[in-house]
Sequence to fold (387 residues):
Amino acid sequence: MLPTTIPLHIVSSRLYWISISLTHFRLMLLRRVVFPRHVVAPYARAYAARASPKSLPRRQHAPSAARQESASSTTGQTSSGAPRRAWLITGTFGVGLGFYTLQLYLAASKPCHNPHIADLAQQKDVAVRYDYTASSFDSDVGLSELLMGINGIRKKLAQKCHGEVLEVSCGTGRNLGYYSLNSASGIVSTLSFNDLSSQMIDVCRNKWETIYGFKARSGQLRHDLKVRFMTGSALEPMPLSPNGKKYDTIFQTMGLCSTAAPLQLLENIIAHLDTSKPDSRILLLEHGRSYMPWMNNILDESAEKHAELHGCWFNRDIGQLVQEAAEKTGMEIVGERRHHFGTTWVFELKPSDELVKRTSSSLGAPSTSVQTASNESTTWLNRIGWK
Ligand SMILES: C[S@@+](CC[C@H](N)C(=O)[O-])C[C@H]1O[C@@H](n2cnc3c(N)ncnc32)[C@H](O)[C@@H]1O
Fold:
């Protein structure tokens, strides 16, 4: 998150540094503001006296000189403490900000070791990485996504999912708490989760049980809701919905960065959408290239290392990929938003009027790709034990 998405390892190193600064700052606050010397001194003396009662006098027997020293230090604190504190706080922030800006500047101005690293042909398949990172994925991306407001975007998109819903590249199920599933108002009738990694799917399934297990058993979810978890590639034909239909909504978050063939993945999921309905939707939340050259320089420079570590290429031109897929398939981009210096992309696609007409008129005579999907679905369903 992963998880503008400033590169995760950059974000984590920055967060690490910021957390260290904050810890120092908090300690300083504790020492100077919450527990200043004149407040702490009597307790410290009492503690010392209890620790070695023979060598040190107890608090009630403390010599008056000590009391005087305590009083004078109190006076000193009030007269010069406030400006000193203000300087310290400003200084800490100033140094921190300066250090951060310098690091960013150095990273942004460094020439990229491979200027063509954004070309898909140069990017090797790293999807297998998720088999190893599944158990720590949520904790790895959780904080940065929270700070960047990604969860809010997930929620907005998930709330738009309706009817027969397929979430591809679902990972650990970071969206599953946001769907509209309630017994009274739920607009999702079936929910299918897909991911290439069985480890990620396992986390997703467990999360489902934790969040919705009780609700489902106690009738708080739609009684006709069908949910399933499928391990497999979204580059291949996928099963129809549990009701035997094509999907009304196909949702993907942070998936185009992780597959070896993002354009093919887009075309494939569009082939699984019910394009005979004008309200069918493809919803995407992705991360990739920025509109700022300096940010792209940082992304390109660290892309290879990041991909090997986290299984995701964060320097792809998502806009170009979605545009190309839309043109090839007859989809229309009805919503496009970018956040975080343009590195976070949100897309909403619907079938164009022409595509709706074409699909509707050919209903009853399914296209080759649909037939493939249906045939393959049997294999898939068998493989995952879904009948
Ligand atoms: C960066 S994670 C995102 C997970 C989740 N969607 C999220 O928003 O947190 C990318 C996911 O895509 C999955 N993935 C990669 N290639 C895939 C493919 N061809 N088909 C299905 N899932 C794939 C990976 O296994 C991984 O779980």
